[in-house]
Predict the 3D structure of the following.
Amino acid sequence: MARMSLKVGSICLIFRLAGAGLLFWLPVQAQPDFSSLDQLFKRDQKSLGNNVVAAIWKDGKVVYLRQIEKEQGDFSAKTQAPLEACGNWLTAALVMSFVEQGKLSLDDKVSKYLPIFSTYMKGYITIRNCLTNTTGIQVDVGMKKAFEKSKFESLEDQVNSFASNHEIQTNPGTEFFYSNIGPNIAGRILEIVGKKGFDRLMQERITRPLKMRGTSFYNDEGGAIDPSAGGKSTVNDYLNFLSMLLNKGMFEGKRILSEQSVAELEKLQFADIPVKYVPKPAIGWQYTLGAWVQELDSKGDPSVITVQDFAGSFAYFDKCRNYAAVLFTKNSLSEPPKDLYKRFKQAADAQMPASCQ
């Protein structure tokens, strides 16, 4: 009888261990298979060049990392790369940090802080207009002109030139025209309200709390800081920023932005106005504060929000699939692989089940 009990006990133990093994094995088997992304990079490597990093973040960790570098250590997820237009999202987040403290409102007129705009008949432009490319200020068509490098010694000088040297083409909020004018006006207002330089304010309020140690808007060449396209960051840093947005303003247990601020950053802005100019890759997309809205969920709310410099680099998060992704190139590509962003996201989505329609 004792032998029988011992035998039965041994058999039960074996089954329990086997069951535990299966429980351990199932999650391993369920890990995403990103081989299609690897194939994408292999196919497009000639166009992408030798310095590219891509990463995907989900459930608190990086689940995919691909580094293409000419030599080991040349370019990694910790290496700085130009943000170009991807900096607009950070600038919008910095504005919201002031809004939630009651230091300014998105619907404040810029002339409240910059009287020169009233002098030149631009007194009705709001900070919201600045972050949504709806200032109505005339700018030359084309990305080269719309985001040409500043030749001014300070952001103050550049923004004053927007007031004095550029005509109003349409009433604010009535037409969408993608350019660097609005974000830089907003950045200058932050300098006035915060009584510090834009780069220092960004460090204190956004990048330092998010442990974005490789991110800066400081102009190494001298001259004006550029809140719209002058930043530098790393893949790891930008993933920290995106994870904070996905977590409704929280990062590593600390609140960086309020839930209300994050919700405002995700909200569609001026969705029904005519579009005067938009870069070709973004045709058909809508806009929020500093970023593009690519997809809406069944309720009509933004579910995929992205930023791109349209010369190779991009970053986005998908609320329905609860993941974020970043691809940075060390240098802007003259001709990025066709539909790179679209093909990258399709390959990533295939491994991420959606929780909403």
